[in-house]
Amino acid sequence: MINDSGVPVWSTNLTASSSGSSSTVAVLGDDGNFALKDGLNSSVTLWQSFNHPTDTWLPGAKIMIDKRTNMSQPLTSWKNVEDPSTGSFSLELKPISESLIWWRRNSFYPAMTSNYTNHFKYVDNENESYFTYSVKISANTISRFVMDLSGQIKVYSWLSSFQAWSLLWSQPWQTREVYRLCGPFGVCTKTAPNFCSCLPGFSISSVRDWNLSDWSGGCKRNSDLNCAANASNAERDRFSLISNMIWPDDRISLDVWSNTECQAACLSNCSCTAYSFESNACSIWFGDLFNVQQLSQNDTEGLSFYLRRAASDVQDTSKKSNVIVIVAGSVSSTVTILEIVFFGIWRWRRRATVTSKTVEGSLIAFAYRDLKVATKNFSEKLGGGGFGSVFKGTLPDSSPIAVKKLESISQGEKQFRTEVNTIGNIQHVNLVWLRGFCSEGDKRLLVYSFMPNGSLDYHLFRRKDSKTLDWKTRYQIALRTARGLAYLHEKCRDCIIHCDIKPENILLDAEFCPKVADFGLAKLVGRDFSRVLTTMRGTRGYLAPEWISGVAITAKADVYSYGMMLFEFVSGRRNSELSEDGAVKFFPTWVASKIAEGGDLLDLLDRDLETNADTEELTRICRVACWCVQDEETHRPSMGQVVQILEGLLDVNLPRMPRALQLLLDNQEHIVFFTESSSSNQSAQTKSNTSTASLQKQNSPSSTKSER
């Protein structure tokens, strides 16, 4: 193909000799496939655009791995809005039935799996593995799938009445969630033009690219840093406080005991570009900073860090409270020497300590005798579970604590301290704060902040001395609990599987904000999730089927437990109880049948709420719960998806009937449905005549708002 000047603008590597044809014709099909054929009416295709996608994927085309050549066919984004050459992002199939978005050949985001959503179909045979997709809105739907230059994969549908493309689905859902969208030292924020801005002391690397929505070049320093050991105080680098942020990638934790030591550690290494000292924990960053996000003023989950800047960039430092000047000693800039120094300080402090508690990293190492005093010899028991018993205590400064005496801990002290420090470094508004620990002989204890409103089970099931939780509070507890679990599964350096999600492990602070408790303890007692587990650890009624099916445990086991707990948010009672005549009352089955029949979900609601609930939120929770308890873990949503659904960012489709619940329906003469009257007549009336096929209309829990 050539332009008016005779210059080729497009060609294939296909020649007449290689094709064996002298009458090659080009055909543009109704499906959008541009093909070269051996003759006008020939069925032989010599070359087709469906096998060579650029940034656009059409229904019927494949995102494929050719097993014979071991070659893949990726989608690649444009460089910018004017330049269709290869950009920073690509979508490529991996040999594990999933597709990944790549950023400059660094994989980071699972885009879709063979069971991810109803748009996609995965095929695997001896010659190839591939995804195809379809959008079934109407018979005449025209759609396209794009690897956008924003780093998102997007599905569009053509609206002929408006003569415009409508967005149906995207991943990630929000642009600011895209990996390294704004490049090095860029900041992603909802309020900035084109989403991206620069950190203080930095300016746009390429204004032209930036204006064309190519932010991959990021930002550059306005002035070079001065890392010379002989630099004067006026020339030394400074640190600026950056507040209310989501931290950059790839932080490194250091065992230091003060903000001053954390500052000195960063300044003494020329490659260190930022540090933070939050909750008595020191984190430092080396090299370029990526994925920095600025949160809104109303967002309470923001964190702070200190950005290294040249002295010449910071004017009139004496009047700026957010600038810190550090005078560094003659500390070597090598990490090895720095670690030796910190280890020496730690050893010296250990030997010099004469009090009963010492600081280790971000945690306090308590003496056992002090915890006995604080808890009055463990006299006030708050509760207990699979990991041990919990007692109330009070520290000398009058602050209340909860002390958990761990059971069945066989780890040595060094390994125990390592695991505990890992737990202590996990900070989230919906996770219980671990303040310290005790490790003396065979005694292993954990010290947490005390939650004045106790555990969720008391307010749902035993509420003799407490008011009924209204619907708004229940919904917020469900949403915030999901956020805490999503953080454990998706935001921590290593995925943390809880293994025992239930109302007893959801604690409530003075404002009824939920805090997930006991996270990280499964690994502490020896759970190895890289292999199939031979013993269960959890609570009957919340355990996923895979605990007894002989497959490896994943984060989806927590999703199942969370779903079972959601049913109890609705009913205000345990999912499974025995009636006076010995029959089983099982609430999830009633919910599933109600949804399938299109019945009034307010009938499911805790009677103490007197039907005072948002019906849209109630529908959302019931559907999410049914998706979470699917038999196959691949059919369950991730906790991140659950959060988006509960936040209203994603709609949730009609759930399929889990096999376990279907079996209960098929044998319901032995079941009394969980109604408030518990009458046998009402039980019989709820029998479902809906076929299993109609209950399994969709394979995915979520769809975008545009799919309504």
Automatic annotation (TrEMBL):
Q: Where in the cell is it found?
A: Cell membrane
Write out the ranges of the annotated region (Disordered): 676-708
Q: Name one GO molecular function term.
A: carbohydrate binding
Keyword field = ATP-binding, Cell membrane, Disulfide bond, Glycoprotein, Kinase, Lectin, Membrane, Nucleotide-binding, Phosphoprotein, Receptor, Serine/threonine-protein kinase, Signal, Transferase, Transmembrane, Transmembrane helix
Question: Where in the sequence does UniProt note compositional bias of the Low complexity kind?
Answer: 677-694
Which parts of the sequence belong to the Apple domain? 227-310
Task: State where composition is biased (Polar residues).
Answer: 695-708
Which residue range or ranges hold the Bulb-type lectin domain?
A: 1-49
Enumerate the spans annotated as Protein kinase domain: 376-673
Family under the similarity heading? Belongs to the protein kinase superfamily. Ser/Thr protein kinase family.
Name of the protein: Receptor-like serine/threonine-protein kinase
